[in-house]
Design brief:
The chain is an alpha/beta fold. Helices cover about 35% and strands about 35% of the residues.
Length: about 100
């Protein structure tokens, strides 16, 4: 399980790609991918296309990312969400804070 990240300077966007599971085992890698950068991007993209499972700690990780984005007036977009993940995020109320595709 891992998190990769890529910064697009032109779009001022940091993309985080999740592989396999979005759970507590990637907490540090997820956090480091957006905190240990010398940038405060205008937008974050979280690509969940390879994510097969999610747990409650992932919702906490997303909440922390939301707080950081809000502090820097940035937006967050979740892309390639499975219907199951989209439903979990909708029930948890994330659609009010994050654009979910």
């Amino acid at each position: 399980m891992s998190v990769s990240h890529e910064y697009d300077k032109e779009r001022d966007c940091l993309t985080l790609r999740l592989e396999d599971g979005f759970d507590f085992s990637i907490h540090r890698a997820f956090r480091d991918a957006y905190i240990n950068q010398d940038i405060d991007p205008r937008s974050y993209v979280v690509d969940t296309g390879s994510t097969e499972r999610i747990d409650s700690s992932a919702l906490g990780m997303l909440m922390l990312l939301c707080e950081r984005a809000r502090a820097h007036q940035a937006s967050i977009h979740l892309v390639n969400c499975s219907p199951a993940l989209r439903n979990i995020l909708r029930v948890a109320g994330f659609e009010k804070q994050i654009t979910i595709n």
